[in-house]
Fold each of these.
Amino acid sequence: MIGYSFRIRDLNRKGNKQNIGVQLGKHCIQNNVPVSLVMETLGVSKQTVYNWFAGVHKPAIAHELKIKLHFLQ
């Protein structure tokens, strides 16, 4: 595993599965996709990525399109 904490994995499991950020988190955790790759690809901070993974915030429409294009095909 890449280094996702138990806390992030637990928050992701509890998150709303309809939220694309939670879907992204599930994909990254299951496929060992590093947060740094998500950060660089989408141009956001580590905290933003973790907030999406946990379902705390939902990605903006522009980010949703990039997420679908690069990670959730």
Amino acid sequence: MSLLCSLKDTVLQENEHPIISYDDFSRRDVRSLVFHFLYAAEAFDYQESLQSIVDNFNRGFNLNVPFDGELFKVVDSIINSRHELEKIYVPFLSNWRTERVSVCTKLILLFGIWELKNTDTDARIVINEAIELAKCFAEEDAYRFVNGILDPISKDCRKELSISTDS
């Protein structure tokens, strides 16, 4: 089982397992860690520093996530732009209030939207990975909701990109 679902169930004792290097993580593992760090930040109402959160994960799960690496920068960027990212998905919540969207689903949407807007990763991959996160961490049918929100957003992002490159 990958880190994607196993991290939520495994608490390692210090020195029980070797340190897991960031270089050993798959892209899916990295996405899982992004979700975990976002969830921890949300749980602390964004009052705890990201460095402290990552440090606690490093020590608690025998990880080696660098503070100056890509993963840290991605999570920091999502946290800092979370209000703008939320404004992107709110118009797609037909017949839903934002308060009804669970924390896990909201964080997966924020991450997916950030990835659509800030990376060259194919939209189908971004959406599929968001669906997999939802299957692991959100409520039972949240993956359908995530797909239904990210799909039209991905099409809007493509239009936006083609307009900006045509100018």
